[in-house]
Design brief:
One of its GO terms (molecular function) is diguanylate cyclase activity. This protein is of the alpha/beta class. The chain contains 35 helices and 32 strands. The strands form six sheets. Strands 11, 15, 16, 17, 18, 19, 20, 21 and 22 form a nine-stranded mixed β-sheet that branches.
């Protein structure tokens, strides 16, 4: 008996184990396997991948990710292109590989700028100090670019030695400069108590991204969803890793073969954070401007040619996100299962849709649906012999799948969903020649108004103007004839349809006598219980190009027709002209007056890129293009409420703005670069052209403003001269502007004043509070210095690390010293805690001096005495100013 129970239990246990194994297998099979080839030993450099695995982000994205260990000699690009690895982490030189034609795409970047540095036995502040030095490095782009920039400034060329990977080469002095990651080797040197200095390429204007995650072009094309899911999960991993450093360090140690200690990994984690998360730049983002700067550096070091750089479009390198308008598998299956889709259309509503004498579906809407058929591979079956009121009934009874072009109304929204509007025209009133102009529909109280039964105009008047007596007709022609025969005072309908019907049927004696503020916003309508079809139609509409829509529009409605109709309206409203010549003259004058209304139609056809028009008297914006609205983030109404100068960035407006506007008003165009701010505060740059527009009488009636977006160009310029962290000028910019600034001061016969300052015991800030806190402090110091030195000819530079330089003029030795003492006191007053120092708070030391500008020819003339004075300030107890004494 017992044996029987034992057997039964064993069978149950085996079954459960089998089920568990099958369940596990099914779970694994549901995940897509991908791999990542890293480009160095396992360490915190790749924490985003480890964290995404540890926290299940990849699994949530449907991915089973394997991280492949690095081996010497591995070519990351070839591993990815060959398919041996799905993704790979590569150095920034991979940008040159792409330009050379290798089939790769960039998915994201782990580091916004490179942690690659040179270790030096002595401080390097000028590129000329690299003269005759021997250098060991791995041919990283940043180091190559730095050495390339040094070539014109060194007396003796640098000598490059292949790296051995042995840090003793640097410690024992076998090489003067040693290529390293700031996140790695400095910890080892600190542990050994070795002195070293860092030479950072970023301090000399070299700011390329690093650790670009790449994928093969083939995989990116075939599996864009997987690439995007991997990107998002990895970014989430980095977001977790930088805020949970110790946890991820312990995970790396427990799961991967690591050759570093826990303390070394924690040091790396603190140092890595500032490279991964930089200011307001989103983690992982690929900046086209930075990619272009990286390409420029590749050209400078000879990796690519100038022609190859000219052809390079950084957007081509970036793996595109999945198209939001691409059909899903479910939507594709719906089309396969429904090859014929029944549509409800109007058979007599030209030029939008009608059925001709041959029984063919024609018109603007019909042309749209022909494009839809080409895109979707289905047949749309229209109704050809049923009036509109019956079509509406057929839709309600589900005999039809969709309505082709209808305006959303409360009644229709009860059972239909709508795409966005794809055609828009005003609703107008048409009367005979004796009918006076009707300013408002309230004037039609008790009057007879003809409308087509079940048209939107019918529903609108029925619901909003019940005091109007409606005359219901079956089509537009019947409605116009009702006005001619006196059955109705006016007909209410679509402007374009009325005009088309009049011209094609030769109906005369009618005129536009009023216009509603309501418009026919025509959309595709689908039953509420068919969301798939609605989504398909919306995506198909979204994918139509402006050229395709413009061609359909011009096939059926010309701008001439609209303006001619407006001319006739004006002619009858004014009742003052009868001769054709005088009519043309009045039309031109009134057209200018009416242009505000007509622009809604005109610019629908010809929407100028980033364009606007402004009033030359008030400088108010009269009209804006769609693209300019998208650029600024403002709506048209918001832009019209502000002046043209309000839309620019007031901090960088041209100083001679008034003279520029005076020039344009005099009839002379102006072109220049202007900085703007979007509604949400983001900065952009445009090349602006102001063109005066003259009327037929020669006066300037408006100014046309066109723009070319040069934001990427300006960002590349800024990357090369601005310090990434503090946004102060960098050492490269100092080298560029110093001679010109000295000559300017010499022409004014002034003295030049310089101050070199350094934060005291700043290393303790990083050690005690972390590098991220240290970075925040550096930004605060930069902001404080900007407050104290904010004149137009004051310059502030971050030379590297915690060392800064101030250049000013037109001051005396005494005044400069007093102002610097105030600056020191201002920092101390912030009470930034710095434990273990003599003051208990962060302080700074300053070496400064004032020289006659005529005695200064280059920066090296003043740097040595400034550095000596700074050293003296530190030696004397810090938190003080030491002025250079002149003989």
């Amino acid at each position: 008996m017992k044996l029987k129970y034992i057997c039964i239990n064993l069978i149950v246990l085996v079954s459960l184990l089998s089920l568990g194994k099958a369940a596990f297998a099914n779970t694994s099979e549901s995940l897509t396997p991908v791999s990542v080839q890293i480009n160095w030993h396992h360490q915190f450099q790749f924490a985003g991948f480890y964290a995404a695995i540890a926290k299940g982000y990849y699994q949530d994205a449907g991915l089973d990710v394997t991280i492949k260990s690095w081996q010497p000699g591995i070519n990351i690009r070839e591993e990815v292109v060959s398919g041996r690895a799905t993704f790979g982490t590569s150095y920034s030189s991979v940008v040159a590989d792409f330009i050379k034609g290798h089939p790769i795409k960039a998915v994201m970047t782990s580091f916004q700028y490179s942690p690659m540095v040179l270790l030096s036995q002595e401080p390097i502040t000028e590129l000329s100090q690299l003269s005759g030095k021997n250098v060991s490095h791995y041919n990283n782009l940043q180091i190559l670019a730095l050495l390339n920039r040094a070539e014109p400034e060194v007396e003796e060329p640098t000598q490059t030695y292949p790296p051995t990977g042995n840090l003793d080469d640097f410690i024992l002095g076998r090489v003067n400069l040693y290529g390293a990651y700031e996140t790695n080797e400095p910890f080892q040197l600190n542990e050994l108590g070795e002195r070293y200095y860092l030479v950072k390429p970023g301090d000399f204007g070299i700011n390329s991204a690093e650790d670009l995650v790449i994928v093969s072009q083939e995989f990116a094309t075939e599996s864009p969803d997987i690439v995007d899911q991997f990107r998002q999960a990895t970014i989430a991993g980095w977001q977790y890793a930088v805020t949970h450093q110790a946890e991820i360090v312990d995970y790396i140690l427990a799961n991967y073969p690591v050759i570093k200690s826990r303390q070394a990994l924690l040091f790396e984690a603190r140092a890595t954070t500032k490279y991964v998360r930089t200011g307001e730049i989103p983690i992982g983002s690929l900046d086209p401007a930075r990619l272009m700067a990286t390409a420029a550096e590749s050209r400078d070091v000879g990796l690519i040619t100038a022609k190859e750089l000219q052809r390079f479009n950084p957007e081509d390198l970036i793996a595109s996100r999945p198209d939001a308008n691409a059909l899903t598998q479910a939507e594709k299956l719906y089309l396969i299962q429904n090859p014929i889709i029944k549509i409800g259309n109007d058979i007599n509503w030209a030029p939008f849709e009608f059925v001709d004498e041959h029984g063919e579906f024609k018109g603007i809407v019909a042309d749209y649906f022909k494009l839809f058929e080409q895109r979707l591979g289905v047949t749309f079956q229209p109704v050809v012999d049923t009036k509109w009121s019956n079509v509406v009934s057929m839709m309600q009874s589900r005999e039809l799948d969709m309505l082709t072009a209808v305006t959303p109304t409360p009644e229709r929204k009860a059972y239909l969903n709508f795409t966005t509007s794809y055609l828009s025209f005003p609703m107008v009133l048409v009367g005979n020649q004796s009918t006076l102009f009707i300013n408002d529909y309230s004037e039609l109280t008790g009057k007879r108004v003809a409308v087509v039964r079940d048209y939107w105009s019918h529903e609108y008047l029925r619901n909003n103007h019940p005091e109007v007596e409606l005359v219901l007709v079956d089509d537009v022609t019947e409605g116009l004839k009702a006005v001619i025969n006196g059955q109705a005072l006016v007909y209410s309908g679509n402007l374009a349809v009325i005009n088309y019907t009049q011209q094609n049927l030769g109906i005369t004696g009618l005129q536009v006598v009023g216009q509603s503020n309501q418009r026919f916003e025509l959309a595709v309508a689908v039953h509420k219980d068919n969301p798939l079809l609605l989504s398909i139609m919306q995506k198909t509409l979204n994918n139509l190009t402006p050229e395709e829509k413009g061609q359909i529009y011009t096939n059926w409605i010309s701008l001439e027709m609209l303006t001619r109709l407006d001319r006739r309206q004006i002619f009858y409203i004014t009742l003052i002209v009868s001769a054709l010549l005088f009519l043309m003259l009045v039309w031109v004058l009134i057209y200018r007056f009416q242009k505000k209304r007509l622009q809604k139609y005109i610019y629908q056809v010809n929407d100028l890129s980033y364009a606007s028009a402004i009033d030359p008297k008030t400088y108010k914006i009269l009209w804006v293009s769609k693209r300019y609205r998208e650029l600024t983030g403002y709506s048209e109404k918001e832009l019209k409420r502000i002046s043209c100068t309000d839309a620019a960035n007031p901090e960088n407006m041209p100083k001679d703005t008034q003279s520029i506007l005076t020039q344009v008003i005099s009839g002379i165009s102006w072109t220049g670069e202007v900085e703007g701010k979007t509604k949400h505060g983001f900065v952009y740059w445009v090349e602006l052209t102001l063109s005066p527009q003259k009327s037929m009488f020669g006066d300037i009636h408006q100014i046309l403003v066109t723009r070319v977006n040069i934001t990427d160009k300006k960002r590349i310029e800024e990357l090369s001269i601005k310090d990434e962290l503090t946004k102060l000028h960098n050492r490269r910019y100092l080298t560029q502007i110093f001679p010109a600034e000295i000559r300017r001061i010499q022409r004014k016969n002034n003295h030049v004043a310089l101050a070199l300052f350094d934060l005291d015991h700043f290393k303790l800030i990083n050690d005690n509070y972390g590098h991220e806190f240290g970075d925040d402090i550096l930004r605060r110091i930069a902001g404080l210095a900007t407050e104290y030195f904010n004149r137009g000819d004051d310059f502030l530079f971050r030379l590297g690390g915690e060392e800064f330089l101030i250049i000013t003029n037109d001051t005396t030795l005494e005044n400069f010293e007093a102002h610097l003492q105030d600056f020191c006191a201002g920092l101390f007053a912030l009470k930034i805690e710095n434990q273990g120092t003599e003051h208990g708070f962060l302080t700074l030391s300053i070496g400064a001096g004032v020289w006659p500008a005529a005695e200064v020819s280059n920066f090296t003339d003043v740097y040595a005495p400034l550095d000596k004075a700074l050293y003296q300030a530190k030696h004397q107890g810090r938190n003080q100013v030491v002025m250079v004494k002149h003989d």
